[in-house]
Design goal:
Elements (H helix, E strand, L loop, with lengths): L9 H10 L2 H14 L6 E5 L5 H4 L6 E5 L14 E7 L12 H4 L2 E9 L24 H10 L2 E7 L9 E8 L2
Parallel strand pairs: 1-2, 1-3, 3-4
Antiparallel strand pairs: 4-6, 5-6
Amino acid sequence: MTNNNFKYSISYWDIMLKQNTDSARFINAIRWHFVEETKPKMVLDYGCGVGWFRALAPEGTEVDTYDIADWPQTGIQHEQYDLITFWDVIEHIPDLEIIRPFLDKAKYVAISLPILPDGADFGTWKHNKPGEHVNVFTKKSLNELFEKFNFEFVKGGYPECCIREDIYSVLFKRKT
């Protein structure tokens, strides 16, 4: 017998995500630990992908999800956010001015992205993906960009985790 009243909702999607991958659970535990000092209650996961960050959010934290892909997401529902995340996103956005309205809503911004390690050859680097990675940053150029957006560097480091070689994580705070 089937239940014809069942609806596939964002809550159902969250449950399926929580149950179905160890690597996503591992990576997102690291990401939540990375941002825990911001004590976020309201988060926007911009470029959320399938929604792992939301699905694995700590109790008491609400996460809005936004992505250009056509999978379940909440959309941008709030005027202000304690934290906006860009996990593996900003290297794909041709014109970063498009994120300015969202940044204006944020106290903190957390980012992960590939940054060429010191001494590595850009030509043979695995993250040199012309057409896919339309922005390539150094730590310095990333800090300068967010300085322009009125944020200051709080902390950063890489690799994001042992299975994310060359992925740099950074946390910025809105200047007061």
